[in-house]
Please model this.
Amino acid sequence: MTKTLRPGQRGAALLMAMLVVVLVATFAAASLWQQWRTVEVETAERARIQSGWILTGALDWARLLLREDALGLRNSQAQTIDHLGEPWAVPLQEARLSSFLAADNNNTSTDIGPEVMDAFLSGQIVDLQSMMNVNDMIGPTGQPNQEQIEAFQRLFDILNLPQSELAKLVENLRFSNMPLLVSPPPAQSPLKPTQLSQLVWLGVSPQTIAVLAPYVTVLPANDTKVNVNTASAEAIAAYGNLDLSEAQRLVQVRSGSYFRDIQDIQNHLSGGAPQMPQGQPGELGVGSNFFEVQARLRLGKIVVEERSVVQRAGDKITVITRERGPGDPATLARAAMSQR
Model:
């Protein structure tokens, strides 16, 4: 005998069935989301590790270029010459990673994976001694270096920048060096900058930093020279105490043949001056020890940029700093200047 449900009971049963369906659908959706999230996390982690390997390989490749350049210079007995005609100075346009691996018969797409084979790599090596070093304005003892300050004053005049910001920069830069010279350090000493964008700590406006970016850098030394073979006319004029037109002529001359020594530079100055302009002896050079390696990796939808500062001492290449992330205005301006 079939039991007939009353209308109220039929409604309750239908509501219960709908709740069961909703619960099942919710649990299924949660399970599917957890599975999707796990796959995405694993994919992102795999891409991060792969991009790290590739960028490390790119950095090692750049170090090898600089090392081979040093060895080649040593063999030719011209150890101190660096110029824009050398292999390290040629930018790498975006290229598929598989084109680099094709020459190695030991590498196959099954060994490496299709994601890496579809990766695109680009980058360049920038001579950091093609720019004026902010830390040169403070000597090893923490006292201002007046000759270097005057060189920066000339650069600020050439670029029409306020001298008041330079004076504030020098003063704060001197204070930032005090913790290295005084123990205990002064409580109000600003942090010592390690890159150009950090000069805002020392009273330089972002607008001034943007203008200075192609001509100024921050190196972990205070005795560097500006390489005439790679520097801009503005940096050469300011650092060498030359007229801007004279510096532009030197830049034009080096496009045909690089300078081999200071005497070679002097021979191309107007009148063949036997000495560099008085007041800035020995600050210009023809070689470099500090370089910035810029690399950009495009791996599917992921784009990773890395910048590394390296120091070359003979055939030894040491990585000083290494950071990843989007290029800051200083790096972008520097890259644009290096391609001019």
About this structure: Residues 277-282 have pLDDT under 50 and may be disordered. The chain is about 45% helix and 15% strand. The two ends are 96 Å apart (CA to CA).
